[in-house]
Design goal:
Two copies of one chain form a homodimer.
Chain A lengths: L17 H25 L3 H13 L4 H8 L3 H13 L3 E5 L7 E5 L1 H23 L3 H23 L2
Antiparallel strand pairs in A: 1-2
Helix pairs in contact in A: 1-5, 3-4
Chain B binds a DNA duplex through helix 1 and helix 4.
DNA sequence: CTTTTTTTGTTGACACATCAACTAAATTTG
DNA sequence: CAAATTTAGTTGATGTGTCAACAAAAAAAG
């Protein structure tokens, strides 16, 4: 009935909460689709994928370095890596300079799954980027930067 | 040490995954801050707040209508409302035309807490919007629209 | 060198999110 | 109107994300 009516848009809502709402919804959609693609193409979870992507671009890495780069929760990272080692996707070599720390890298099995999922993830990523012009993409990333800064600023004075 | 170095930016990463990563990080930050503000100012959770905001702008509402408007999970909505009724923030009046359905509205207690949290949430919202120009805000929402559409399109042909 | 502080990583508890199975009322269909 | 389908809402199982407490190694301070 009221199917295609714009019941909640930037226009009819008192700006109120729009950033938060829209961000949450978009994030949920992107995540759900990522999860589906990863699971279908390689049986990977989103957390596993994220760790693999960072290993791919930065080489073998310590959990703490991963946390610093991504700001993801260190508990979640620890557990995900532990699981991936158990299932043979990663192997860890303990650092000689620091007995607490360990460098983590993909195994052949892990890399094989990564390569299996990658084209699908790349294609999705391309589609997401292609729906905007270059200028729009740059503006989007710039807005992300500004928003993160604004949040950090507010955080610091509270 | 490598504290303020842009270790992971749009420039030095092969575009790869940036939309997803940035979106996830921003969402996490916004959410964490919202949760903190709501909890500190009124002891509300984010889910509770979302329901209250929609009641405020749309008047008394059924769970299903809320789900259609926000795309939030209906299980989560059901449980959140149940909890809010139990703690006296909402009351429900059963619809006479449909015995399954019930209209939900804020109680005085609920509204009082809502009003207590609102100025803090508004101020934060303002700060988030003020960090961008009008044109940038419009571009941001437009990009959100485009991205959601792109995801839906991909979804439909799979 | 020994005490204190910081850093690395793990773990437990818990809130939030997602998915699917389910009940019951309403609606559609033949 | 009876059977089949759709819709509203609840519930359980499970996965993900967040927070804080913790142990052990390393670094800094005395």
């Amino acid at each position: 009935m009221t199917e295609n009516m714009p019941e909640q848009t930037a226009e009819n809502t008192p700006l109120q909460q729009m950033v938060m709402f829209r961000l949450a919804r978009l994030h949920a959609k992107v995540n759900a689709q990522s999860t589906k693609i990863l699971n279908k193409s390689a049986g990977l979870s989103l957390s596993q994928w994220r760790i693999m992507v960072l290993i791919e671009t930065h080489g073998k890495i310590t959990p703490t370095k991963f946390v610093r780069l991504t700001k993801f929760d260190k508990g979640l990272v620890s557990r995900t890596i532990k699981g991936m080692i158990k299932s043979g996707l990663l192997h860890s070599e303990s650092s000689k300079s620091d007995q607490r720390s360990h460098l983590v890298d993909m195994t052949e099995k892990g890399r094989a799954l990564f390569e299996k999922a990658r084209p699908h993830m790349r294609q999705r990523q391309s589609r997401l980027l292609e729906c905007m012009t270059l200028a729009e993409r740059q503006a989007l990333f710039q807005s992300f930067d500004k928003l993160e800064l604004a949040i950090d600023d507010l955080e610091s004075l509270s």
